[in-house]
Amino acid sequence: MNPYQKKRRWKFFLLIFAILIGIASVFYTDSFVKKMEREEADQFHLWVKIQERAMFLYDNDDYRVIVETVRANTKTPVIMIDSAGAITSFFGLDSTKTNYPVADAKLTYDSLYFVRQLRQMKAQHPPDEMNFLGKKFKAYYRDSFILTQLRYFPYIQMGVIFLFLLTAYAAFSSARRDEQDHVWVGLAKETAHQLGTPISSLMAWTELMKSKFDAEDDPLIAEMENDIKRLEIITDRFSKIGSKPILEDHTVYIVISDFIRYFKVRTSDKVKFSITGDEQVRAMLNVPLFDWVIENLLKNAANAIENEGSISINIIENLAKEQVFIDVSDTGKGIPRSKFDAVFQPGYTTRKRGWGLGLSLTKRIVENYHSGEIFVKDSELGKGTTFRIILKSSLRYEPTTA
Question: What PROSITE patterns is this protein classified in (predicted)?
Fold first, then answer.
């Protein structure tokens, strides 16, 4: 299992664990809320019975104390109506909107407030009926403020936890990217430093061979010099990682053609190369780094072709958006659609000896250094894959006017 798959599996397990915690919290709170609902309903029924008897026994001082105690401990708002639907009494409502005197409060009377409260109570719970002196009354109640808060608490809790996890994930991701950047830069510059000495020695040895054996025109020596120059370019690439590269105006077709000319002689003869499209389109490029992008794409394409096949590069200019499209297509084994994004993750590879860094580095060079974009445009298993690079064109077009 490669590191990317292992990381995805851990993320999946942690997500499932977080979901289970959230579900357990919701169920526990829901059972607690239902218990409180039953207690409030019992408290309301007791209040109704005592209220019904209070009119008969109100002269009894002992019973009056019991009535006042029950009323004081009832937290649920209550409204009583007569048989005609008119409100006769209420309890536990906002006292600033009633005629009941309250210390240090400005009193107002809001008749619509009672209508809204009664409508809400009717929607929540059925009434209790009361009989007094031959008249029928109905008592309604609604959930207490604490119960309402508890009902929404698990969802608020999950929202806060989700926001915290999102913030923590963003912070840790940013820290991880910074750490990866430092590793990339340190490794790249150290590699460039280590390559410097043997390259200088190889250059000296080739010059000695040419002078000692009179081999100025020897084709083998010429190929060795080409490879040494290639090593110099690679060293230059590594030395540029971590520092802002200098971008220059280049013809895209020429840059890619020059690299293909070098690359194809070092690849199997069974792989055919072709380049088509606009030969004049230009873009701001750092050639050593951009060659690295093309090299990684071509190597992946060549590795995907098991026997015979072809690799084609098509250059298209989007005049409307002033962009350059570079499509690199192969006739290899293809990529599953579910892996279109995964192929750019560090460590992702389908090869037994691969490190899974080529496409990750390619994406960084295109996006971070050339302000472009790269993605899998299309792929089909057994038929091939097309990668698309989008760069900003360095040509500017003024709209024509009649």
Answer: HIS_KIN
